[in-house]
Recover the amino acids of this structure.
């Protein structure tokens, strides 16, 4: 089973999204991360067909990324960008007449997922976070290089950044050139470059979810994190676990930030068990 792609106009947003498994009752929404060239296809293409055997899966390009229409007037802060993405998701699901759903959030997508739960918790059934932001952790040299990528957006710098996402670069060696070709073409687009530069990356403290908010999130949570993640260190998930009332944390050795690549089978197994 593969997936289809569509662009849906909800009024305020024109959202590109991947979808499959519409015959299944349970809906899972996948929210991608924020690296250069990130979008729903590059983040989830190797997972959606497998999970669509059992679930109705939807993965949008979040506002400011990919083939979703980019803003003409840019949000002024990371919080404002996040609010736009929360609004975008609810407008997409409302247009598709989906009321109840679960979430899978990767990195920045995890932070957006947590904000979705904060705003309309009654609509969210379960939440799986993978290498998610939200907990307190200092910025690493790798994340600073990612945030500042467009200060020197060369192919070589993209190659370095891409290999840093995994613990063992040999694990993506067979597909590295394809990944780089697609992402490098993507980052050349003016609308994507402008959104990235005007984006989204937080001032100190903006990426944190207040502990009092976490304590009120009653949904079942599963937090998956690579022990060797250098973009969002494992301490982010550990800090959130101190406050989430109904959560489990699993740490994976020999694994960096791209768990969906390095630990694909483990991720699919954990997702099936959880959902």
């Amino acid at each position: 089973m593969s997936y289809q792609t569509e662009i849906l106009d909800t009024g305020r947003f024109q959202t590109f999204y991947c979808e499959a498994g519409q015959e299944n009752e349970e809906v899972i929404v996948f929210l991608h991360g924020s690296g250069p060239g990130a979008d729903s296809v590059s983040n989830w293409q190797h997972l959606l067909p497998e999970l669509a055997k059992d679930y109705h899966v939807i993965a949008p390009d979040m506002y400011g990324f990919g083939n979703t229409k980019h803003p003409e007037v840019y949000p002024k802060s990371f919080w404002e960008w996040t609010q736009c993405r929360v609004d975008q998701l609810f407008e997409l699901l409302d247009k598709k007449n989906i009321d109840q759903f679960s979430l899978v959030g990767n990195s920045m997508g995890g932070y957006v997922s947590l904000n979705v739960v904060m705003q309309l918790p009654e609509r969210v059934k379960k939440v799986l976070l993978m290498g998610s932001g939200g907990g307190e952790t200092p910025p690493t040299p790798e994340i600073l290089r990612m945030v500042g990528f467009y200060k020197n957006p060369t192919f070589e710098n993209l190659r370095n950044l891409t290999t840093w996402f995994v613990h063992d670069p040999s694990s993506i060696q067979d597909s590295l050139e394809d990944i780089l070709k697609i992402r490098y073409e993507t980052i050349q687009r003016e609308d994507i470059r402008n959104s990235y530069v005007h984006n989204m990356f937080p001032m100190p403290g903006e990426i944190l979810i207040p502990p009092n908010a976490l304590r009120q999130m009653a949904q079942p949570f599963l937090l998956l994190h690579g022990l060797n993640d250098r973009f969002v260190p494992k301490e982010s998930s550990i800090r959130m676990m101190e406050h989430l009332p109904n959560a489990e944390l699993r740490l994976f050795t020999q694994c960096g930030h791209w768990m969906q690549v390095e630990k694909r089978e483990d991720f699919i197994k954990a997702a099936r068990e959880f959902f």
